[in-house]
Amino acid sequence: MSLKVFFLTFIILLVFSGAVNGRRFISDSGGLISDGVHSEIGRDLEILRLDRDFAGGEEESCEQSYGFLPCTKTALGNVFLILVYGYLMFLGATYLSSGSELLLEILGPGIIGGLFLPVLGALPDAMLILVSGISGSTAAAQSQVSVGMGLLAGSTVMLITIIWGTCCIVGKCDIQNSVAVDMKDTRGFSLTGSGVSTDIWTSHAATIMAASVTPFLVVQLPQLLHSTSGRHLSVLIGLIISLSLLVSYCVYQVFQPWIQSRRLAYVKHKHVISGVLKQLRMRALGRLCTDQGAPNIEVLEKLFKAIDENEDGYLSRTELKALVVGIRLEEINLHENDAIEKLMKDFDTSHDHRVEMSEFIAGVTKWLTEARGSEAPSPEAGPDTMKYLDDLHEQTRREHHFLGDQSDESVETVENPRSTAIKAVLLLLLGTVIAAVFADPLVDAVNNFSSATSIPSFFISFIALPLATNSSEAVSAIIFASRKKLRSASLTFSELYGAVTMNNLLCLSVFLALVYVRGLTWDFSSEVLVILIVCVVVGVFASVRSTFPLWTSLLAFLLYPFSLVLVYVLDYKFGWS
């Protein structure tokens, strides 16, 4: 913390030095007569100026942000400013992330986790995109808006190439039976025998990420059709679609915890069904079904009498307990009493808290039908039936594993919710203020550096700005992936896909609104193509599989330089832009 305080103190001194410089006209001082005193002061103040070439070159005018922040026209000076403002944007993003996590601890998922967290995570990027084209003339905005597109494309590409591949490496575990084993990493850097596994919800997040590129396609349609008349309209349509998808995505995030709990409950129910049927199958010596595949009523009656220890003609909760003892409920984080409750709920149709013989036979028949699904009953009894139930039991166990059940994790209570909430709000306000104040100076520094070096501002913003706005997310993702568990890997990759989705929806909505309101020209074919290729390739690949061997990280790394080269070739060799 002391290092941050020192650095911020240095920034404040730099700002004050810029304020001193801001009181002086940045122009040629020729024609003024020295009084012998102020000339010395003037020479001292020249030391504070960043707009003089370090080698002693000629002065060039520059426009100071807010009238007092330092500015420069030299390459090295702008590198320094990009580092300073980039670090401040990084601090802003860090404060926003910390404040969001504190709110999540207090209020839990739902609206906070589904709405505020994704929006706040994309706020620094959205701020930079907004200031890149909101001020100045239309011509100046058209020139500067490439910084916003560079940030949008660079953030998306960096998150699902470099960060994605790094998380795959640091989170790698041994792959056995196509699944990465938690906390087991003995195969080193085996390209096929080591990797990460994620849950089914992460695959859903990847699918949503791939679908989030739809607005890009809509905006790009007039150029694909070589039409110039419908470009402004396509921007408006793309903006509407982007906002609609953004609202839909936030609603999905809000209700996702409820969807997950319902899905987990259903899988646990199927696991109990298959486990109880296995127990009955073993007691019935393999004759649960007749040769025609129908339930064997005679055997079921004998099973009922064998379970009815007190021979009162009813099965109590205590007697039903014998059916769930050998199911290994710990594999699905289900308590024994909960399993018995599921039995009573399905079997006790009269709601008298006990199971009659007719209810038992009807319940087992219903479960056998559910276990077989829509398939016709097999006429083969004996080992085939047993194998079918074994397969179903294993299938439900694996399905539960890939659903990422977290019900066994202890939930830490917040000791002082009031002070924690105040701290969270202050962090969010501080992060928002920093992002809002220093976004414009950072964009100016990028443009000035581009002018000084003749390097297109798109490539500068593509490479440099995502490091400032996404560093906190990247570091958090890498640290979390290093825990080498399916749950941590699932959360890590889900956050990466979610961040890209918000870039493609929220940040694109800001960008399209800027283009439409300012009457700018949409001319970003190569940039859009890069976003489409990376999002679709990674999104489709991650949606059809849940285990990623180490060789997949190499493909992810290669997508980053491929994106840069593709934009350069299309823009400067084929003249797309």
In short:
It comes from Solanum pinnatisectum (tansyleaf nightshade). With 577 residues, this protein is an all-alpha fold. It has helices at residues 2-22, 38-48, 75-107, 111-131, 138-170, 200-211, 214-224, 231-283, 297-307, 317-324, 336-347, 357-372, 383-403, 417-453, 457-463, 465-469, 471-481, 486-518, 525-543, 551-572; strands at 173-176, 179-180, 194-197, 547-549.
Can you characterise this structure?
It is found in: Cell membrane. Residues 295-330, 335-370 form the EF-hand domain. The protein has 577 residues and is mostly helical. It is 69% helix and 2% strand. The chain has helices spanning 2-22, 38-48, 75-107, 111-131, 138-170, 200-211, 214-224, 231-283, 297-307, 317-324, 336-347, 357-372, 383-403, 417-453, 457-463, 465-469, 471-481, 486-518, 525-543, 551-572, and strands spanning 173-176, 179-180, 194-197, 547-549. It has a 4-stranded antiparallel β-sheet with strand order 2-1-3-4. A hairpin with a 2-residue loop joins strand 1 and strand 2 (179-180).
